[in-house]
Amino acid sequence: MSDHMTMPLGEFAADLIADGIIDAQEVVKIRERLYADGVIDREEADFLFNVNDAVSGGANDAGWKALFVEAMTAHVLADDVSPGEVDDDETAYLISKIEGDGKVDDVELALMINIIATAESTTDKFQQFVLASLKAAVLEDGVVDDDEVEMIKAVIYGQGGGAGEDVDRAEADFLFEINDAVTGKANTPGWQALLVEAITKHVLEDEVSPGEVDDDEAAWLIGKIEGDGQVDDAEKAILASVKANAKSIADSLTQKMDAWGV
Predict the structure, then answer these.
(1) What is the DSSP letter of 121?
(2) Domain-located, residue 8
(3) What is the pLDDT of residue 160?
(4) Does a structural domain hold residue 51?
(5) Which domain holds residue 122?
């Protein structure tokens, strides 16, 4: 009978998922098989996604998630065609596989976050998909906890994001959308700290008007803050940070700050 090193990957997958979970010994076997030649090819990537779809939500050994993220990141970023980058083909492949079973689980989300955090660059489509997936995961329980703050940081400041370690408009919009949904909830204090830091960075560390809040940025901030019909404590903290650190602020925002008591 073939062992795990020689049997066809389809048979190996069937053996692994027969009991619905991946245990520690199976993690070792998968690692041995995948890294035997030092390369994670597309067939092996398909194998990983097929196994994960079958055991998603099960009491898997923690090593499974770590191995999946490590191996799939290597498949995407250590290839010969676009090393260090997520190109259009890889974007289409990843989205197709992640959406294939109709859900984005914690293992797949961890993969996307790791790719954004470590890639030299990714496509706009991949960035949008990651932000949408992360937003859905964060808002599932209606509050932002410590682990979610760390995930958001990894995506917002990841070098593979839209602005690298800076914060671009899509990421800033994403942050405001989360805040509008969780305002008044029992969020970890780290959420407001991150929100204030990232939005201040977006407004004052841009290339167009560094250190200043220009008319475009003022209009954007006003629209975001007024968008849900209330000015919450986190948004006032953002404005206070901008006010304290900006060299100049457009009159339209200054007038709003006065009206909002900032």
Answers:
(1) B
(2) no
(3) 86
(4) no
(5) 79-260
